[in-house]
Amino acid sequence: MAKKATKGTTKARGKTVVAIPQLDWSGIRPEPVVLVSGTQPFLADRSLRLLRDMLKVEDPDIEISDINADSYAAGELATLASPSLFAEPRLIRVFGVEKCTDAFLLDAQKYLKEPAEDTYLVLRHGGGVRGKALLDAVRRGEGNGIEIVCAEITKDTERYAFAQAEFQRARVKITPGALRTLVTAFADDIGELASACSQLMSDSADEITEDTVNKYYGGRVETNAFRVADAAIAGRPGEALVLLRHSLISGAEPIPLLAAFANKLRTMGRIYGVRGSSGQLASAHGMAPWQVDRARRDLDGWTEAGLAECIRAIADTDAQLKGGGRDPVYALEKMILLVSRKGRSFS
After folding, report:
1. Alpha carbon of residue 77 to chain centroid
2. Would you say 46 and 22 are in contact if contact means Cβ atoms under 8 Å apart?
């Protein structure tokens, strides 16, 4: 959900206090200065397209110019912001501010003092410390702008919320199970997840169910890393090994496969032996209630010692996959067999 920063003084113990609205990608709107920050390129690109489309609806003749900040020469910004013969509004998009030249920093900070009329300046900063003084100036309110924050989506709850919002905006119904299946299948790439949502929405007139998702993306779902982990955690070693080999043949990398095991077992470890409702535990651990319910089901037959043993094995396997071992596939298979036995050694 879009959020607005608290306004107040500009300094607090040496740190810049944000005095402008900070919004998510969907909250972008025309303002004299728009800072698009964060390391998530897909969301940033989508937000920029949304702003462009908004402005084109307002005035199809808007003049759009792009600047690459890493090759910027002094005076470019002032030239592009100068009024044209027919006084069309202008959209100036500056890319790669995190790699900008000194000349751009000087010109941009000067521009903030007196933004041009009928001009929208967009600053795309992909992260890092370069250009921090300029970002701080924007956040203090110079230029009367807004910030669009496009941070990486790393948590399952964030991916789930993103996909859910995609369907809600389009007013397309999807069952919770179908949404979970879809998010799991495309857990590694938010752009691919968005594309899959769009495909389902354009081709499915009725409510989207798990059968619909499996019809379109069955192969992707079946070979997903989490399916390998699910089979092993449930005590089905044969199925887990078959899915592992299928995934590897399909081009999956060993480290993301291992990450799926680490993700699920650590979630199980946080939930093990803890009392409380699904909602309470979800709030405490930054998860969705359905994830808590799933972890509780996965814990059937597990012991604390078994969980600890498997988590240690995952750490050891990780070291082997990153150069400490000769055969990464064998290391994965050995770890999967241990997880399938719920951390118990052969007796």
Report:
1. 31
2. no
